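Q: I'm building a small set of examples for a reading group on sequence design. Run inverse folding on the following structure and report the sequence directly after it, with nothing in between.
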């Protein structure tokens, strides 16, 4: 039985690498895959998915209002699709998350979504919120904070290299984000300090 999967993590955890490797595994066995990536902040006509270690592949872009079920069903009617992969799934609309669920439920095609869980202010993205609610399987892709603990949050660095505490939910450029554990994220965002801890300990 096909399922809807959501692989979530912070920045630089290797989500795109995992996606591309999984797609390659299908294709190596003679199966066909469809790859999607968020097109909200791309100007090119064709999307692509790339990883920090140099893997990359062409992908279809999705934007707000696109009917992903219709696009996949149409392609599947012409050429069998064995698995669908979605990168930057945090940018899905709620309706689009449900469309992907229908791909698994009605077309019998597994759907593997990869994305961030929260933004730099600790708030859920719309796509992540929907996938956390309806996905059949949730899988955390782990990376570590500078202290060695598991990183679960991200901070955004401004042009001056300092942590931004306000601003739009999305800023272009992966190099402006740093993954941290919850403790160090709170300190960097000014929600808790070492002095607070000392005072509490007393």
């Amino acid at each position: 039985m096909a399922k809807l999967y959501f692989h979530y993590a912070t920045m630089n955890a290797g989500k795109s690498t995992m996606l591309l490797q999984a797609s390659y595994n299908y294709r190596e066995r003679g199966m066909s895959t469809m790859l999607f990536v968020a097109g909200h902040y791309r100007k090119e006509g064709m999307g692509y998915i790339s990883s920090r270690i140099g893997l990359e592949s062409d992908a279809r872009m999705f934007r707000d209002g696109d009917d992903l079920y219709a696009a996949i069903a149409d392609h599947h009617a012409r050429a069998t699709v064995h698995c669908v992969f979605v990168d930057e799934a945090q940018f899905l609309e709620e309706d689009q998350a449900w469309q992907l669920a229908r791909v698994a439920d009605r077309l019998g095609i597994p759907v593997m979504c990869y994305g961030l869980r929260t933004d730099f202010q600790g708030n859920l993205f719309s796509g992540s919120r929907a996938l956390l609610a309806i996905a059949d399987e949730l899988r955390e892709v782990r990376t570590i904070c500078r202290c060695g603990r598991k990183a679960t949050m991200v901070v955004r660095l401004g042009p001056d290299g300092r942590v931004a505490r306000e601003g739009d939910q999305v800023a272009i450029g992966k190099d402006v984000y740093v993954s941290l554990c919850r403790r160090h994220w709170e300190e960097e965002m000014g929600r808790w300090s070492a002095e607070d801890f000392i005072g509490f300990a007393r």
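Residues 39 and 63 are 6 Å apart (CA to CA).
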